[in-house]
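Whiteboard transcription, Tuesday session. T.W. wrote the C-alpha cells on the left side:
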C-alpha cells in the first residue's frame, strides 16, 4: 500500500494543497480546472444580475461567435445614439437624484439653472428620468429651450419624464455615458446618489488625465457637496492620492449666475465656442422628421 496516500507518514490524506484546490474547483460552483485553466463547465459564473441579457454579458467568456454578435449589438447601439443626437446642438448635461419631488429645493434649483442654460442657447441633456432630471428638462421647456433625455433601461423601469423633446433609450450604461460626454460642453451636478457620483468622478477623471480639456464641472448645492470636497481636501490631498490643483477642476456653488458665467467663459475661451448652422438632415439617411422620440 502507498503510505503517502493513506496518511501513515503524516501527510494530508486529501493530497497536496494544489490537489485539494483542483478538487475543490472540480466539484464547486465555479466549474473545473481544465489543463490548469478555470472553466465554467456550463455553469454561470462571474457577476450576477437580474437581467438575462446582461447576465450573459457578465458571466465570463462565451463562444467567439456569441462575443462577436454582442460587439455588433453594442456597435449598433452606439450608431443609433449618434444618429439620434446628431442634430441636438451643443449641450449642457444636468445630473442629479431621481428621488426629489417638485417641491424639493434641489428640484427647484435644477429647474432654474436649466432654464438659464437654455436661455444661453444650449440644449439641456439629462438622463431623461424623474427628480432632478425632470426638473432640468422642465426648466428648458419653461423658456422654450431644447430638452433631450438619454434614458437607460433598468430592471425597475425608469419612465421618461414628460418634458422631453427627444429621448433615446440605451441598454448599456457605458454607451449612455459616452453620449452624455460626447455631446456636452459642461456637466452640472446636482445632489444625487451613487449614479450621480459615478458620472461626476468619471468626468473629473477624464479632465484630470487629459482625455478631455478644461471641461466645466459645476457642483450645485454647497451644503450637500461641502463634506465631500472637505474629504478630498483633508484626506485625499493629504495622502497624496490627488493633487491640490485637482480641486480646481470643479466649481462648487449655490449661484446659477456663477455657474453659467464659468460655463460660458470656458466654452468660449477653451473650446472656441461659436454658433453655426446645425447639420443638415439627409433624406437618404432617413433623417427627415428626425425630431421626436428615438429608442435604441
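and on the right, the sequence the group agreed on:
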Amino acid at each position: 500500500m502507498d503510505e503517502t496516500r493513506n496518511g501513515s507518514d503524516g501527510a494530508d490524506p486529501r493530497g497536496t494543497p494544489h490537489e485539494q484546490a483542483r478538487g475543490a474547483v472540480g466539484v464547486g460552483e465555479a466549474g473545473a480546472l481544465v489543463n490548469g485553466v478555470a472553466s465554467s463547465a456550463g455553469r454561470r459564473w462571474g457577476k450576477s444580475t437580474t437581467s438575462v441579457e446582461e447576465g450573459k454579458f457578465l458571466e465570463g467568456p462565451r463562444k467567439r461567435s456569441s462575443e462577436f454578435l454582442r460587439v455588433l449589438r453594442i456597435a449598433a447601439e452606439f450608431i443609433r445614439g449618434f444618429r439620434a443626437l446628431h442634430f441636438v446642438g451643443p449641450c449642457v448635461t444636468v445630473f442629479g437624484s431621481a428621488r426629489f419631488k417638485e417641491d424639493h429645493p434641489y428640484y427647484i434649483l435644477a429647474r432654474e439653472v436649466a432654464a438659464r442654460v437654455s436661455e444661453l442657447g444650449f440644449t439641456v441633456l439629462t438622463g431623461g428620468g424623474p427628480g432632478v432630471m425632470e426638473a432640468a428638462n422642465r426648466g428648458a421647456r419653461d423658456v422654450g429651450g431644447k430638452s433631450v433625455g438619454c434614458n437607460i433601461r433598468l430592471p425597475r423601469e425608469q419612465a421618461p419624464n414628460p418634458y422631453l423633446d427627444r429621448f433615446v433609450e440605451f441598454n448599456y450604461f457605458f454607451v449612455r455615458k459616452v453620449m452624455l460626454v460626447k455631446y456636452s460642453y459642461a456637466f452640472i451636478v446636482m445632489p444625487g446618489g451613487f449614479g450621480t457620483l459615478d458620472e461626476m468622478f468619471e468626468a473629473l477623471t477624464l479632465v484630470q488625465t487629459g482625455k478631455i480639456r478644461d471641461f466645466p464641472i459645476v457642483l450645485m448645492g454647497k451644503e450637500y457637496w461641502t463634506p465631500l470636497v472637505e474629504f478630498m481636501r483633508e484626506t485625499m490631498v493629504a495622502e497624496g492620492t490627488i493633487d491640490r490643483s485637482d480641486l480646481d477642476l470643479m466649481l462648487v456653488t449655490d449661484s446659477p449666475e456663477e455657474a453659467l458665467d464659468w460655463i460660458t467663459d470656458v466654452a468660449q475661451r477653451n473650446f472656441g465656442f461659436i454658433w453655426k448652422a446645425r447639420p443638415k438632415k439627409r433624406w437618404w439617411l432617413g433623417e427627415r422628421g428626425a425630431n421626436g422620440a428615438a429608442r435604441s
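Someone added at the bottom: The CA atoms of residues 85 and 183 lie 8 Å apart.
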